């Protein structure tokens, strides 16, 4: 897929925006940005939330996992989303495991905020001329802690 994206991007005008339909995982988004893609849309952030998982800089967190039962931290430190600013991993885990729709909605809000923050950081790295090094570090961090 990434090879095909590179080949297609080389054929498209450089002064026009390039949209990739159906990519939303953080690694994939960063990989296609590196190949010249500007915008994306995908169900992944909300679908992932509906399975009880959060996207974070350190990889995915499956909130159904018992290790979060007493975890009072937010889904991600520093995140400004409504879930992270008000609720703990333990509480969101409780909501998810009790089939309370609020848990899945909070995870959706968090995952959308995560991706918006990710692409904003990617834009800043592009503007600094440091995108490839920034991408490699972001991918290394996400792989290191994915469960
Ligand atoms: Zn959040």
Write the layout of secondary structure elements.
Elements: H1 2-11, E1 19-21, H2 26-33, E2 39-41, H3 44-50, E3 53-56, E4 59-62, H4 82-86, H5 89-97, H6 101-128, H7 131-145
Parallel strand pairs: 1-2
Antiparallel strand pairs: 3-4
Helix pairs in contact: 2-6, 3-6, 5-6, 6-7
The chain binds zinc ion (ZN).
Mean pLDDT: 94
What portion of residues is helical?
55-70%
How many individual β-strands? 4
Question: What Rg is obtained from the alpha carbons, in whole angstroms?
Answer: 16 Å
Q: Please provide the ordered H/E string of secondary-structure elements.
A: HEHEHEEHHHH
* Widest beta sheet: strand line-up: 1-2
Based on CA inertia axes, which overall geometry fits?
elongated
Percent of sequence in beta strands: 5-15%
- State the major sheet: 2 strands, parallel
Structural class: mainly alpha
Number of helices: 7
Poorly predicted runs of 5 or more residues: none
Q: What is the distance, rounded to the nearest whole angstrom, between the alpha carbons of the first and last residues?
A: 24 Å
Bound molecules: zinc ion
